Every structure is written in structure tokens, then in C-alpha cells.
């Protein structure tokens, strides 16, 4: 059996992804995420896990240092990477939306949008025929409209709780997001059997 | 932005001596195989017109390096070799010698928009077989590329073969229009299975055919292709028969275990119109090379002939080729003013025996121990002792 290197996102998605792999019948060591280790082996399955920042998973897979990975569709939309998107895992379901202070309109001359997803935001407003100025932020995007940095934000919404607590309302839904199983194009060919097997096992779980 | 003295433009790389040496080995092995198979090497200019080669090559516009000549015409640094060679082949000189077999080893330029890890200038070697529209031409180039990979001792070589035209015909049978087929192809180029399945739901495909349609993306053998071939469609059957023939040829050449027949494999190079293929190997996370039939491209040069070929990426082959295990022997002769004459004679003698020999005036070396460590043999005519 050839070894498979799997890039896993740390944090929120990790738990769900780990659970899905176990449910699919993979024999993984308990508490993978518990340690501060960045590389964890699962010898019974000949897996090697790389624990990476969610945004970085497609990078590892694109360069082929990881054969497969679990990545949010949001990351895939933001950075166009040459990886194969094999399966919608249906986990970590959320969506990207625009939000802002209630009952406000966008500045007509220079509408400003704060976001962690400049590419997604720019594509969305261009498709609506609106020219906007994008301001890239790395976190706590909700701050931007509250203190007058931007008219709207483009961000991930899972429950809407964060928006509400900060007195913001959702305006337009842009796209639904779930996590995907992605593969490096070369690994997909050279380790086809192992990867197809994984797709089938996970597909059965994802459909439930 | 101030540019520091050591900086190079994005994607540009230096070839240090050990890389340059490995490249030279790769080049001589590759070109000698291509020449032995009857292909003539040629070189085309680095600069071409944007209006012709720039637009015809399948490389995205924003990946082209553009500049202006003194007449204000836009030029491009050649982004690929196939279109310039098609231009050459269409010239009168070669037109009368069809089928013509041409080979190249050249650098091409593609601007990179993102972070590093991808070169903006890299070498490609490959062949173009122009003026032969038979299956045997396709088989010849696939076998030739495989033999280069074999010579370079690339491990776990995999060849993925698809057929653009046959796929097009099969997609039509699902009742799709040309625009819808284009959407499907877009999802297929990146092997986006998720997008493909979602797209299937939005297309006017009959419910009972949906499962069969979704199966398209996972084919890996020719036997699987058969389920989509309409027995009453002569064109489909002829193309499928050809693929079976190709399978036999691959088998005879001992390649059949390395081949995956993937019906939905499509190249990002849009000029391929028939059989398409791509090469993979252990050691590189990116495909080693690709190729296919591009009869349509020749039409753009007003030539109604068939053409097929492949290109291999030298930078990726370097990662995948077996390392040279033999440590190279190199002798160092250290001399001082007094022993200069003696040292010259010694060096000449060693060189005439075929030994690679470096002659160095000892007092000019700052760190003698580090310097001598670079050589397999050190002859000290400077009065010092080894170690």
C-alpha cells in the first residue's frame, strides 16, 4: 500500500473532517489535533497528515507535497489553484454573503468593501455591474462598517450570530460553501487506486 | 519599489553549475533519442509577433511577455514551441516534404502572476510530426516520449490518454448544445468532479441518463468507454476502433500497464482536436509533459494537414529523473611560483588521460581546506600536505 499524504485544515473544519474519515472506516489515532505536532502519522492506514492553515491546504496539494487535502470551497474560490476537486464532503457548511449596518445604502461614488476574500468580492460586484473599492482585512471584518472603514463586508456566515452581535445585517448571499476533497493532479494518476477508494468511502458518508 | 542588486524578475531562475550539468545530460540524452527516431532539431526565434503566434498559442493573454518593436508592433517572447513550429512547417520550404519530423529543445516564457514555485522561463523539449493524420503518428510520438522518460529513469511513469473529438461526440449524444459542451469541458479540464456533477443537474440531461453521465469522469480503461459508444454512429465507432488499435500498439511496446485511458481527460491547451495525452512520474508534483493532435492549428496557417506532437518540461524532468549516482572525479593541482612549470605539465598529463583537472595558484586561495574539499583528488605542489 502506498503512503498517502493528507493536508488537513487546523481548527474549525478539522474536527468534522476527522470524524468523517473515522466514520468512513479509517483507523486513525485518537486526538490527532491534540498535539502541537504539524505532521502526524496514522501507520495503520499508511497516512501522513499535514496540519495546515485552512487557506494553505490547496497550496500543499498544488505543489504535490500533499497528495490530497480537505479544503473549504471559499479558499478554492479565492485562489485559483490547479488541483482536482473530487468530492463535496458536505461538512462545515456555511455561505459567503455581503453584510453591513442596517438600512444603509452603499456610497455612490466610492463604495468600499472590506473582506478576507478580495477575489470573491471583486468577482461578485463585477458580475452585478458595480465598481467597488476592495479593502483586504485579515480578521474581525465586522469592525469595518462599524467604525466607518467600509460600506459593506463580504464574509463567511455560518449562523449569523457574529453579525447580529455586532449590529450588522446580511444583504446578499453570494455562494454556498462546504468542504471539498481535493487532489494533486499527479497523485491522482499515480495513486489512483488509493484516492478513488477514499472518494468512494467518503462519498457514502457525505451522502448520509 | 527599490530593486535590490541580487533580485531577479518573478519566476526567473539562475542555473547553478550542478543544475546546468544535469540539464546538459538531460538535453543530450533527449535530443539524441529524438534524432535517432528521424526528427531534425530546429530553433525558432525568441521573439514573435503577438498578432500571429501570440494569439494562436493557447497560452492565456496575461501570461504573455509583451514588448514593442521600433515600428510599434507588439511582440511576444515565445510562450510555446508548437505554434512557431507550425508556422515554420507551413512555409514553402517544408510544405513539399510532408510528413515532416521536427524536434526542439528551447526555452519558452510564461509570465507568472502569483508567488514563486513556478518558473516564468523554462526549457521544453519535444517533437512535432506534421503531415500525417494517421493513428500511427500519434502512437509514434507517445512511444518516443516514453522512451525519453525511460532513458532518464523516471519512476512510476503514467501516461493518460483521452480523445477530445470522441468526447465531443459522446457529449452531443447526451443532447447537449455546443455552449453546454463548453461548460462541461471547463469543469473537465480541472477534473472538477463536484462542479461536473452540479453542472449535470442543470443541463437538459434525461434523468435515466444522469448516472451514466456522471460515470464519464472516472473512466480509466478503454473497456469502460464502450458503454457510451453508440453502435449506429459510424464516426464514434471508427474513433473507438482506432483507440483499440492504439491500445494494441501500446501493448506491443510494453507500455500498456503505464497507460490510463480517461475519456474525459482534456488538455488546457485548446488547440488539441483529437487524441490528447499527458505524462506523469514520481518526483514532480506537476505533469512532466503533454501532447496531442492539433490538426486545427495547422488550418490557421492555411495548411490542411494532420499534426501531432509532444512537449516535455525540462524543469520537471530534472526533479523526476534519477540522480546521477557516480560522483564526478575532479583533480586539483595546487602550485606556487616555484612549481608552476611542474604543475602545468602534471595537469596536461592528467587532462590527456581524460581526467578533469583544475589548476590553481595556492596563495590566491583564502580558505584552503574548504576549497580542496570540493575535489576528489588533490595534488599539492605548493609544499603543503593533504588534510
What is the strand and helix layout of this fold?
The complex is a heterodimer of chains A (208) and B (387).
Chain A: E1 4-9, H1 12-23, E2 39-42, E3 47-52, H2 57-62, E4 68-72, H3 73-78, E5 84-88, E6 94-100, E7 112-115, H4 118-127, E8 133-136, H5 143-146, E9 152-157, H6 161-165, E10 169-177, E11 179-183, H7 185-190, H8 192-207
Parallel strand pairs in A: 1-3, 1-4, 7-8, 7-9
Antiparallel strand pairs in A: 2-3, 4-11, 5-11, 6-9, 6-10
Chain B: H1 17-36, E1 40-41, E2 47-49, H2 50-56, E3 66-68, E4 74-77, H3 82-90, H4 92-95, E5 100-109, E6 121-130, H5 135-151, E7 158-163, H6 164-173, H7 178-189, H8 193-202, H9 207-215, H10 222-225, H11 234-252, E8 259-261, E9 275-280, E10 289-293, H12 295-300, E11 307-313, H13 314-320, E12 331-335, H14 340-352, E13 357-361, H15 368-372, E14 377-381
Parallel strand pairs in B: 1-5, 7-8, 12-13, 12-14
Antiparallel strand pairs in B: 2-4, 3-4, 5-6, 6-11, 7-9, 9-10, 10-11
- The CATH superfamily of the largest domain in chain B is Bira Bifunctional Protein, Domain 2
Radius of gyration of chain B: 26 Å
Secondary structural class of chain A: alpha/beta
Give the radius of gyration of chain A: 19 Å
Oligomer: heterodimer
Low-confidence stretches of chain A: none
What's the total helix number of chain A? 8
What is the N-to-C order of secondary-structure elements of chain A (H for helix, E for strand)?
EHEEHEHEEEHEHEHEEHH
The CATH homology group name of the largest domain in chain A: Periplasmic binding protein-like II
Q: How many domains of chain A?
A: 2
Gap from first CA to last CA of chain A = 28 Å
What are the low-pLDDT stretches of chain B, counting only 5+ consecutive residues below 50?
none
Put simply, the count of helices of chain B is 15
**CATH structural class of the largest domain in chain A:** Alpha Beta
Helicity level of chain B: 25-40%
CATH architecture of the largest domain in chain A: 3-Layer(aba) Sandwich
Amino acid at each position: 500500500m502506498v503512503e498517502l499524504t493528507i493536508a488537513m485544515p487546523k481548527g474549525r473544519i478539522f474536527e468534522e473532517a476527522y470524524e468523517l474519515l473515522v466514520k468512513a472506516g479509517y483507523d486513525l489515532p485518537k486526538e490527532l489535533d491534540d498535539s502541537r505536532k504539524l505532521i502526524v502519522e496514522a501507520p495503520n492506514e499508511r497516512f501522513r497528515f499535514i496540519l495546515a492553515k485552512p487557506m494553505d491546504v490547496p497550496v500543499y496539494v498544488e505543489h504535490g507535497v500533499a497528495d490530497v487535502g480537505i479544503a473549504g470551497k471559499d479558499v478554492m474560490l479565492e485562489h485559483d489553484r490547479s488541483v482536482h476537486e473530487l468530492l463535496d464532503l458536505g461538512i462545515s457548511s456555511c455561505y459567503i454573503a455581503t453584510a453591513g449596518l442596517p438600512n444603509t445604502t452603499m456610497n455612490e461614488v466610492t463604495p468600499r468593501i472590506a473582506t478576507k476574500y478580495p477575489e470573491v468580492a471583486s468577482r461578485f460586484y463585477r458580475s452585478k455591474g458595480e465598481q467597488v473599492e476592495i479593502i483586504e482585512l485579515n480578521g474581525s471584518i465586522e469592525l469595518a462598517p462599524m467604525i466607518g472603514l467600509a460600506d459593506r463586508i463580504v464574509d463567511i456566515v455560518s449562523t449569523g450570530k457574529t453579525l447580529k452581535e455586532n449590529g450588522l445585517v446580511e444583504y446578499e448571499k453570494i455562494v454556498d460553501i462546504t468542504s471539498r476533497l481535493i487532489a494533486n493532479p499527479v497523485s491522482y494518476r499515480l495513486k489512483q487506486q488509493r484516492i478513488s477508494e477514499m472518494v468512494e468511502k467518503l462519498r457514502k458518508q457525505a451522502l448520509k | 519599489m527599490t530593486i535590490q542588486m541580487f533580485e531577479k524578475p518573478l519566476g526567473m531562475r539562475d542555473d547553478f553549475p550542478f543544475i546546468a550539468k544535469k540539464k546538459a545530460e538531460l538535453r543530450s540524452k533527449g535530443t539524441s533519442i529524438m534524432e535517432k527516431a528521424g526528427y531534425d532539431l530546429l530553433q525558432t526565434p525568441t521573439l514573435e509577433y503577438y498578432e500571429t503566434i501570440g494569439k494562436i498559442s493557447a497560452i492565456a493573454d496575461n501570461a504573455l511577455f509583451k514588448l514593442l518593436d521600433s515600428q510599434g508592433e507588439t511582440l511576444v517572447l515565445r510562450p510555446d514551441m508548437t505554434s512557431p513550429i507550425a508556422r515554420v512547417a507551413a512555409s514553402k520550404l517544408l510544405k513539399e516534404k510532408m510528413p515532416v519530423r521536427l524536434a526542439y529543445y528551447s526555452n519558452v516564457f510564461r509570465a507568472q502572476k502569483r508567488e514563486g514555485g513556478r518558473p516564468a522561463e523554462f526549457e521544453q523539449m519535444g517533437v512535432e510530426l506534421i503531415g500525417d493524420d494517421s493513428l500511427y503518428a500519434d502512437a509514434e510520438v507517445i512511444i518516443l516520449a516514453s522512451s525519453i522518460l525511460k532513458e532518464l529513469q523516471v519512476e512510476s511513469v503514467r501516461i493518460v490518454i483521452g480523445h477530445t473529438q470522441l468526447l465531443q461526440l459522446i457529449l452531443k449524444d447526451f443532447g447537449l448544445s455546443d455552449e453546454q459542451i463548453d461548460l462541461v469541458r471547463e469543469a473537465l479540464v480541472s477534473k472538477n468532479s463536484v462542479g461536473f456533477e452540479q453542472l449535470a443537474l442543470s443541463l437538459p440531461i434525461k434523468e435515466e441518463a444522469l448516472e451514466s453521465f456522471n460515470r464519464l469522469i472516472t473512466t480509466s480503461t478503454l473497456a469502460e468507454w464502450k458503454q457510451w459508444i453508440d453502435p449506429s454512429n459510424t464516426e464514434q465507432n471508427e474513433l473507438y476502433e482506432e483507440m483499440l488499435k492504439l491500445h494494441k500498439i501500446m501493448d506491443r511496446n510494453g507500455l500498456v500497464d503505464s497507460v490510463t485511458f480517461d475519456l474525459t481527460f482534456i488538455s488546457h491547451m485548446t488547440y488539441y482536436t483529437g487524441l490528447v495525452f499527458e505524462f506523469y512520474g514520481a518526483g514532480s508534483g506537476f505533469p512532466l509533459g503533454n501532447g496531442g493532435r492539433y490538426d486545427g492549428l495547422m488550418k490557421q496557417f492555411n495548411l490542411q494537414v494532420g499534426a501531432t506532437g509532444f512537449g516535455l518540461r525540462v524543469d520537471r524532468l530534472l526533479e523526476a529523473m534519477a540522480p546521477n549516482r557516480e560522483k564526478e572525479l575532479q583533480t586539483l593541482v595546487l602550485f606556487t611560483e616555484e612549481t608552476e612549470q611542474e604543475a602545468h605539465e602534471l595537469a596536461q598529463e592528467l587532462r590527456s588521460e581524460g581526467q578533469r583537472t583544475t589548476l590553481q595558484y595556492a596563495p590566491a586561495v583564502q580558505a584552503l581546506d574548504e576549497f580542496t574539499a570540493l575535489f576528489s583528488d588533490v595534488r599539492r605542489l605548493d609544499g603543503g600536505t593533504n588534510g
